[in-house]
Amino acid sequence: METEKKEVIFKIKNLKTWFPITKGFMKKVVGNVKAVDDVSIEVYKGETLGIVGESGCGKSTFGKTVMMLEKPTGGEVLFNYNGEYKDITKFNKDEMFEFRKKVHMVFQDPYSALNPQKKIYTSFEEPLKTHGVDSVEEREKIMNRVLKMVNIQPDYLMRFPHEFSGGQRQRLCIARALEVTPEVLICDEPVSALDVSIQAQVLNLMKEIQKELNLTYLFIAHDLSVVQYMSDRIMVMYLGKIVEVADSKALYDEPLHPYTKALLSAIPVADIHHKKKRQVLEGEVPSPIHKPSGCAFHNRCPYCMDICKKEDPVLRYHGADGHMTACHLYDGSEVKA
Ligand code: SF4
Predict the structure, then answer these.
(1) Is the pLDDT confidence value at 289 over 50?
(2) Distance 260 CA to ligand 1 centre (A)
(3) Taking the model in full, what pTM does it have?
(4) Which atom of ligand 1 lies closest to the CA of 296?
(5) What whole-number distance in Å separates Cα of residue 209 and Cα of residue 205?
(6) Cβ(239) – ligand 1 distance below 6 Å
(7) For the range 265-274, what are the long-range contacts, defined as Cβ-Cβ under 8 Å and sequence gap of 24 or more?
(8) How large is the C-alpha radius of gyration of the chain?
(9) Distance, CA of 167 to CA of 110 (rounded, Å)
(10) What is the Å distance from ligand 1's center to 297 Cα?
(11) What is the mean predicted confidence (pLDDT) over 199-224?
């Protein structure tokens, strides 16, 4: 599929989410934690965009900001309303309420996402009531439809969350997210709290549902094998910035950025005859408050050059099919935000 023919659902431009650090009685701002720092990317309708990086790289904050659960410090998040792009960062309360029907989040811990004191029925009817489905009959019809999609029997609605296994609970969370027919699901580590044997079940179910409803997924995870299995494209983040974006296959077969290479070299290989050279990253992840000058990865990069300590590399296209990386090792055309 050619890049220009894909419909873009989100255009994210120069997105920043900074958390101020205050000091003293007057709460003077003395610095910022730059969790998301000037991120620009387009998300295509119907794709799964995997988002990877070490803990603290900003991937979860990015997901929450795209959904406006975190208020951005700067930048734009344009959402496609039948071909017209509207900046959701400027939405008023009513517009935001409508937007919330289109984008939902699936969280890591399915147990805390469901109120343990309420029956599943109550947890399922609340969002429908909020979004104006007043008829009990209509609500139950929707509940039954979404439960069927995740292979859970309708009579289980009268149970409490603790009566389900972890996998069933996550399936319930996915079903609840589907009630108001969203276009996008932002999945933040959706299977990392589950047993490995259950993970594949939930991932396959998510793929089936995506195909059936033409959903777009932003799939955030630290497990690179899971991300590879799920994603059409992958975006690698380091200290709040994108360092590489590519089709899943291209990224795993021919990663460009030294950080991506190091991450991929850490994936365990089951074949004992296949000896893989692991690249161990030197040094600590720098603080997002005091980022190193130039390329933020330079203190850990085995290829660091003089320019890397002075100039922050720009995300540029390199090679075919929209493969982009931000590294002075590569030349290419600059990505226009
Ligand atoms: Fe390494 Fe320089 Fe590339 Fe940064 S810009 S990843 S320091 S080679």
Answers:
(1) yes
(2) 11
(3) 0.90
(4) 4
(5) 6
(6) no
(7) 266/224, 267/224, 267/225
(8) 21
(9) 8
(10) 6
(11) 93
136-149 vs 166-178: helix crossing angle, rounded to 10: 130
pLDDT at residue 117, rounded to an integer: 92
Q: Which atom of ligand 1 is nearest to the CA of 305?
A: 2
pLDDT band at 273; cut points 50, 70, 90: low
pLDDT tens digits, 48-106: 999 999 888 899 999 999 999 999 999 999 999 999 999 999 999 999 999 999 999 99
Residues 6+ away with beta carbon under 8 Å from 92: none
Q: Could you give the CA distance from residue 164 to residue 33 in angstroms, rounded to a whole number?
A: 38
Which residues in 64-165 belong to E strands, given as ranges?
74-81, 84-87, 103-106
* Residue from 241, 259, 261, 298 whose mutation best tests the ligand 1 pocket (most atoms within 8 A of CB): 298
Token pair 């590294």 in the structure block, residue:
327
Q: Angle at CA 213, nearest 5°, toward 321 and 221? A: 60
User: What does the DSSP assignment read for 204-262?
Assistant: HHHHHHHHHHT-EEEEE-S-HHHHHHH-SEEEEEETTEEEEEEEHHHHHHS--SHHHHH
Both tokens of 2, joined, read: 């050619």
Give yes or no for residue 281 CB within 6 A of ligand 1.
no
Say whether pLDDT at 268 is over 80.
no
Tell me, in angstroms, the distance from the centre of ligand 1 to residue 256's CA: 11
Place of tokens 């990069």: 301
Of 214, 315, 212, 261, nearest to 7 (Cα)?
Answer: 214
Q: Where are the beta strands (DSSP E) in the chain?
A: 8-23, 28-44, 48-52, 74-81, 84-87, 103-106, 184-188, 216-220, 233-238, 241-247, 316-317, 324-325
Could you tell me if 44 and 12 are in contact, meaning their C-beta atoms sit under 8 angstroms apart? no
